[in-house]
Amino acid sequence: MSTTTTQREPELLGQTVVVIGGSSGIGLETARRARAEGARVIVTGRDAGRLQQAAKELDAKTSAFDATDPAALEQFFRELPTSFNHLLMTAGRPYYAPLVEMDFEEVRHVVDSDLLLPLRLARLAIGKVKPGGTLVFVGGTGARRPAVGLSVISALSVGMPALVANLAVELAPIRVNLIAPGFVDTPLSARILGDQLEARRKHLRETLPIRRVVGPADVAALAVHLMINTALTGATYDVDGGQQFVAG
Asked: For 37, how many CA atoms within 13 A lie in the half-sphere containing its CB?
């Protein structure tokens, strides 16, 4: 009895994916997955060394700059050789502080990276992203519950779905979607938590409904699906393993 293996066509074949913040974590994993689906990949980030590694691994074009610098961002878009199909912007570093200890310069930086940057990208996408292509932003679910120290990140977490829904209407037929992860086991998480990282992993494995920790590949799989499925726009997709439904 013979076995027939069905080969499927890569679903992003011939398309171009731009990843803003793609030198590690969710961005790099999304670039890997898009490349596996046949896409050409352009990856940006601040760390030129990590970008060189990504370029070698993915046969990707790279550009090292700070995306929160408006002039650098506009130059990057001007120098893109052609239009492209999809763009992913990863989330910035979260900011936690009670009101009495708040550093308002840091708050301005967080608002710039998590709110103004998506707006700048959306405007620059006009005429660059092909009709039916996507903008995919990464937000979060972790700060939807009120708590001391979460004022800034909570406001951004609950505001992004409204922003994305409006952009989906305004930029149509470009599609705009938001991914809202909870804790994701990335190098950024490791830097933030330091020696508390393993305890956090253990707690999540014991309490999450999925009984495991969410990783970059889980978010990347959703990001690429949003690029492929042309019926999806204006929506927020949680990928947190049920974290928001359990305490802690």
From this structure: 19
